Amino acid sequence: MLGVLLVVFVIGGGYLYSVNQSAVQGYHMRTLEKEIGKLKQDNANLKIAEADLRSLYRIESVEGDLQMEKVDTAVYFEERGSVALK
Amino acid sequence: MQRPGNAQLKRTKKEVGTSEKYGRVGIIVGGIFLVGVFLIVRLYFIQVVSHDKWVAIAENQHNAFQELSADRGEIYIHDGEDRYPLAVNREYQMVYASPKDVVEKDRAALELARILGLDAGVIKNKLDRPNDPFEIIKKRLNDEEIARINELGLKGIAFLPEKYRYYPAGELASQVIGFASLRENGRVGGYGIESSKDGILRGETGTVSQEKDAAGRWLPLSDRLIVSPKNGESLLLTIDRVIQYETEKILKDSVERYEADSASAIVMDPKTGNILSMASFPQFDPNNYSEEEDYSVFLNPVVSMTYEPGSVMKPIVMAMGIEEGKVSPTTEFVDTGSESVAGYVIHNSENKVYGRSTMTKVLDQSINTGVIYVEKLIGNQTFGDYFTRFGFGKKTNIGLPAELAGSIRNLENTRSNISFFTASFGQGVTTTPLQMLDAYVVFANGGKLIRPNIIDRIIHSDGREEKIQPEIVRQVLSEETSHTIGMMLRSVVVNGHGKRADVPGYQVVGKTGTAQVAKSDAKGYEDGLSIGSFVGYAPLDDPRFVVLVKLDNPKKVEWAESSAAPTFSQIMKFLLEYAKIKPTEEVPVKK
To answer: Does the beta carbon of A57 lie under 8 angstroms from any beta carbon of chain B?
Structure first.
């Protein structure tokens, strides 16, 4: 009789533990899902912020501060083949 | 008369009672039967005939249903090896109040009004509605506003995220991209790519439904049915960000310098038909499109406006003559300065008389009578057929909204010589700037007409990318003719009216056109209005860029050689250097 009670107690305890673990894992998954969602949104916001910073209108407005100089004429150098010396 | 006895009377009463009883039972049974029949019929109609309707009503009462919105696809352009977002979905915060939870309503209203720049009375009015669970205070907050409201720690004031369409590049390519506006059924494309590709950008909304209790709360243990939303496809356009920006900048400078009303420019890669830049001025900011008073600024004039192109049509007529073997660059004709037809006299510009002239000179000096001479040799029927083969009178199907086909209806009557004569120097027929550019691509592309393309790839929501392949429409000219016409157009830039379109060090080719503007409500042309244009390409031996520049009603200069040609030169110089194309000609040294 005591043995049966012990088995029931162990099985019941095991069941409770597994249910508890499932609940903990489920909660953990939901937390991670939320975190993924937030990171995705942060990533999207950063991409927009990057696009704003890369805007050519903005770059041109601060070209003086960035000490950028407009190139009027492109100069092309003649490419020469390498010479092997003995 | 014999009276009935008691026994007989009793029996008769009993018989009558039984009969009445059966009668009443019959009525009740009949009634029950009728009610039964009525119920069966009614059930039939409810359960069979109107089954779907009642199921829907029941589901509405017992099920909570929510629509899941799909993210609208984004639009990108090329930025070197990278991609630049032109249209994205941006999350903004909206601040709202739950009036019953707000304490210190006067203070809350005053503080919020100060931070948000709103009227404190209006906010207080919203906070004084205790039965209203949700009152929007302000949408699209910036980061500073959110931080300052958070610092206040007001009870009953909270934020809710909302997605809006955002255009990081502002005005860049605004007529190409258009904008998406909020309608009853979500965000819908209004103009530009946002409109023409709305079907693939929009995606499909999803749903989630679950049983609810009498109070309307979701039942946690009941089955939940989720249909996931399908996000819209994104698009990568063929436009290059730097080329688009620089073209717009040069175009804007030209509009100011020549005091033009408006202007357009297109840059195309002749080998693929890919549009590298499609610029128009004036532009608009798609982030604030509702502030525009003149809605016509939303239209893309490159595809939605037609004009009589003028002398830029002459090389096309010359190419027909060469292809048909009627003329060559050295063929001579004698110009008398005018041509009479059907009671009209057509003159050269500025009434000039050139005498004996070669076909090369006809293009160099843009001689009207010279192209009429070629048209006569070709014949009206063949001339009209070539117009169609070059793509005039038909939409290019580039995939932009409100594209016009232009009109070559005047060439339908082959007995009307005057229509064909005027068409030879670009009057009496209309084209869009894009059609005109595409016709020149035939010269730059070995005689092949190519479909202009503005969408490089469709980026599916699962990450797959679908490349849009170039489409050759037809072979219009032989490769030899296209080469010959290229040499003649080089002569226009070296010896003719196109000198100011040249870029030192490169073989640039093209043709000017100063066109009159047809009256919209009567026959004839507007006094004092003109359209200056230049179409050309470079380098001649291996064309990389075909460019069209069109300035509407420039006031400071009379001819396109002094307005559109130098604008073209600026754009072409930038393009050749940007593409690191090595000069092939000697650059004259400035003394």
So the answer is: yes
